[in-house]
Amino acid sequence: MPLVFEKILDPGTRLGVWLATEGDDFFEQGIQLHDTEKEEIAKLQARKKSEWLASRYLLHYLTGRDERLITLKDQSGKPYLEGNAHHISLSHSGQYTAAIIADHATGIDIQVIQPKIERIVSKFLSPFEIEHLPQDQIMKYWHVYWGAKECLFKAYGKGRVDFKSQLFIHAMAEKDDFCLGEVRKSDVSAQYKMEFLDLEDSILVYIAKEIFKIENNER
């Protein structure tokens, strides 16, 4: 069982990373698929199907339940567990699958380190963030900041977000293994603590705590 990382942050928050070296049959035998899910994965290409199966297998493991809950998506495409109040988030990169389940808005992101990220740094980081980015291991921190903003985007969950101007990462020190990030939009202002770690050739980032969240429904 290649569960390469697992962490329980508190009684309501649990996450894990799976290195999916198994074939699809392994995951299909480990979870009972509902008819709607069978229809969904029948439309997926081979790689996407493998990612789908691995993420649902891992998510079921993290719930600790005997009976599996169906994973659905809301109108914005955000996944949720049918009949369950917990928040979830999923991520894929290479053979890695990451998942988190929490009792607050959450997000998780895993990225295999790729030098080509340098091409898009100016598109997702503000001038302030670029100026205050830790300069040692710059490639690592580009991936940390990208992963952190992906987590914020997933926690917001409504799409239509500008990563550069509406998602903000506070300055951090090179010795830190966490960062603070904010979602700043007209309908919500929220701040989260995110933790990150090196996972061999990848960077894992996840929301560890919701610090505050103020919603404005007058739009």
Helix content: 25-40%
**Number of beta-strand segments:** 11
Structural class: alpha+beta
Share of β-strand residues: 25-35%
Q: Which regions are unreliable across 5 or more consecutive residues at pLDDT < 50?
A: none
Would you mind describing this structure in some detail?
- There is one protein chain.
- With 219 residues, the chain is α+β, with helices and mostly antiparallel strands.
- The chain folds into two domains: 3-102, Ribosomal Protein L22, Chain A; 111-215, Ribosomal Protein L22, Chain A.
- It is 28% helix and 35% strand.
- The chain has a five-stranded antiparallel β-sheet. Strands 1-2-6-5 form a four-stranded antiparallel β-sheet, with helices on one face.
- A hairpin with a 5-residue loop joins strand 3 and strand 4 (79-81).
- Helix 1 runs parallel beside helix 3 (46-63).
- The protein starts with a strand and ends with a strand.
- The mean pLDDT is 94.
Keywords:
Ribosomal Protein L22, Chain A, single chain, 219 residues, 28% helix, alpha+beta, five-stranded antiparallel sheet, four-stranded antiparallel sheet, 2 domains
How do you describe this structure in short?
The chain has 219 residues and is of the alpha+beta class. The chain has helices spanning 24-30, 35-42, 46-63, 121-124, 127-131, 138-156, and strands at residues 3-10, 13-19, 71-73, 79-81, 87-93, 96-102, 108-112, 167-169, 178-184, 188-199, 202-215.
Write the layout of secondary structure elements.
Layout: E1 3-10, E2 13-19, H1 24-30, H2 35-42, H3 46-63, E3 71-73, E4 79-81, E5 87-93, E6 96-102, E7 108-112, H4 121-124, H5 127-131, H6 138-156, E8 167-169, E9 178-184, E10 188-199, E11 202-215
Antiparallel strand pairs: 1-2, 2-6, 3-4, 5-6, 7-11, 8-9, 9-10, 10-11
